[in-house]
Amino acid sequence: MAGDVVKPKFRRRHLVGVVAANLVRCLFRDAARTWGRNFGATAPALGSMTLLLLMAGLVGITAFALRNLEQEQAAQASLLHVYLRDDAPEPNIIGLWDQLASDPRVAKVTYISKDEALARAQSIPGLPELANASESNPFPASLDVQVRNIKDVGAIDAIARKSSIVDPIYPTSYDRGAYERIQAILFGLAVAGFAFVSLLGFVAVTVTMNSIKAAIHSRHDEITIMQLVGAPRWMVRGPFVVEGAITGALAGIVAGGVTFGLAMAGIAGSSSFTQFAPGVTTTVAAIAAGIVLGAGLALGSGSSLLSLRRHMEA
Description:
The chain is mostly helical. 71% of the residues lie in helices and 6% in strands. It is built from eleven helices and three strands, in the order H-H-E-H-E-H-H-E-H-H-H-H-H-H. It has a three-stranded antiparallel sheet. Helix 1 (12-37) packs across helix 9, helix 2 (39-77) packs antiparallel against helix 7 and helix 2 crosses helix 9 (233-269). The longest helix has 41 residues, at 178-218. The chain is rod-shaped. The protein starts with 11 loop residues before the first helix and ends with a helix. The mean pLDDT is 78.
């Protein structure tokens, strides 16, 4: 009939494709073009965010290494070496071994002979030279006492020192307060690192928010027109969030790459790196780089959202 209105039939798949294409064009392509045109205004935010993420990545790897180092130090501090006299009778050694092993605060007692002590010293930097300088074996036999709780090491040390078969000059390896000093140093480093990264984070977020604020003011007329024609809020705000995410992603890629490269250089360049940074492997470096990239995306988009809520609703 002449009065009928013919409605075009669109395939659902075609409709979804058109909507997706428009979404990509409005949110991502246009946002990327605008970001490139305004690179001069975005560069300070990109630089400060890259520096923040780089320092955060390095501090994170350092904190991971210090945590492992602290655990190793704690395990070493809870292992008490009781050094024996060279002329100590075997029955007396067995008696001291039984006395220490029967203490509920002790997990394990192991006898280390002079030859075993010498072999162990060969793997410790500086000690092979000491062994080679002497014609005889300078390392005494010992009882290695693994204490269950590091707080009980002092009490076990007091028991061991009373034995007549213990070396009178250097009876044990116990150093009162050594572990506490290590913990205090590590805690101070952690606080200083956290304060430094927090300061950089405040600067990076502030600079990023200011760059988004400048972009909002420069495109005020465009935003007003879009709001007047009824554009949804996500369409108005989305490009700014994407621009912030682009800034964060680029900063994360650069910082993550540098973090991974420095960690790999340390692993491959020095055999003693694992002693100062235990547990830091290629996998750990890759995970740290991925976390830095994700943090960059979150930081860039989050800063943009904060700036939008503050300046677009004002």
